[in-house]
Amino acid sequence: MNEETRQILSIIGTPPDAVRRALSRHGVLRAGINLSNFLLVSSRTADGDPAGVSPDMAAILAACLGLPLKYVPYESPGPLADAAERDEWDVALIGAEPQRAAVIDFTPAYTEIEATYLVPPGSPLQSAAEVDRPGRRIAVAARTAYGLWLERNIQAAELVTGTGFDGAYRHFVDRKLDALAGLRPKLIEDEKTLPGSRMLPGRFMAVQQALGTPKASGIALDYLRSFVAAAIASGIVAQLIARHGVTGLSVAGLEQGN
Fold first, then answer.
1. What is d(CA 80, CA 28) in angstroms, rounded to the nearest whole number?
2. Dihedral angle sign, alpha carbons of residues 102, 105, 108, 113
3. Phi, psi (5° rounding) for residue 88?
4. For residues 51 and 41, is the Cβ–Cβ distance under 8 A?
5. Burial, 138: exposed, middle or buried (Cβ in 10 Å; 0-12, 13-18, 19+)?
6. Can you say whether the dihedral through the CA atoms of 8, 12, 13, 16 is positive or negative?
């Protein structure tokens, strides 16, 4: 047992047998991983498994449960969320959004990532609040957590969705859109590729990365909540962020959304 597992178990204790059974109906803990979030999945192991903050969180959880771990990777968060009703994973590491909560129970967040806008050269826009105006068009990656947030909250501007970050960026450039929505660390990279573009200050929201379990496995939710709280309180989440050298990823507060 490694030190991280010992720390968490010293806080939350041995998991009840009912929780272990609920999360290992196929003999292992199947962890759904969103490969498109480069802050949370930052590399691969020599065996090709995902590596980063989210895979490490899954590994620590499996160790606390005393279960073998199997990663179930998805290229983007939409298909991962869709699989909640198909018995493909037992726990998922994904942005907590109301649209997904219809089929997934979420813990409080363990990390958060700021989302803001990139605007093209010569744009008159100076703040995120100015983007949502009639006639303005926003490029956004389809079915991302911040994209779902925009679908709920944008009232006057038009959303133009693309497949993945690259698809949204191509729409932004090729169709001369007014703003590109995205995670701040990714937009920093995009800003470098488009001379004269700039990121707007502040944020329009923060993506809350959480653990989720299918509604059918709801008996495990209280334990997963306790696990996340212990991982934050013990400093383990902060240690994982530092270990993987991730910039733009913050430890979430315990009071934030579930």
1. 18
2. negative
3. -100, -20
4. yes
5. buried
6. negative
Strands 137-141 and 158-162, by their bridges, are parallel
Q: Are 178 and 149 in contact (CB under 8 A)?
A: no
Residues 16 and 228: their CA atoms lie apart, in Å, by 16
CB 66 within 8 A of CB 105: no
144-183 pLDDT tens trace: 999 999 999 999 999 999 999 999 999 999 999 999 999 9
List, in order, residues 6 or more apart from 17 with CB less than 8 Å away.
none
Tell me the β-bridge partners of 21: none
For the segment 117-135, what is each residue's pLDDT rounded down to a tens digit? Answer: 999 999 999 999 999 999 9
**29-34 and 69-74: which strand pairing?**
parallel
Structure-token pair, residue 31: 């962890």
What pLDDT is recorded for position 1? 81
Query: Tokens at residue 257, please?
Result: 């959304």
Domains in the chain with CATH codes: 3-111+207-251 (3.40.190.10), 113-205 (3.40.190.10)
Contact (CB, 8 A) for 180 and 168? yes
Q: SS3 helix, strand, coil % of the chain, rounded to 5?
A: 40, 25, 35
Average pLDDT over residues 243-251: 92
Q: Please choose, from the candidates 62, 89, 69, 65, the residue with its C-alpha nearest in 3D space to the C-alpha of residue 77.
A: 89
Q: Name the nearest CA neighbour of 94 among 85, 86, 107, 229.
A: 107
**Rounded to an integer, what distance in angstroms lies between the CA atom of residue 107 and that of residue 123?**
39
Residue where the block lists tokens 């949370």: 40
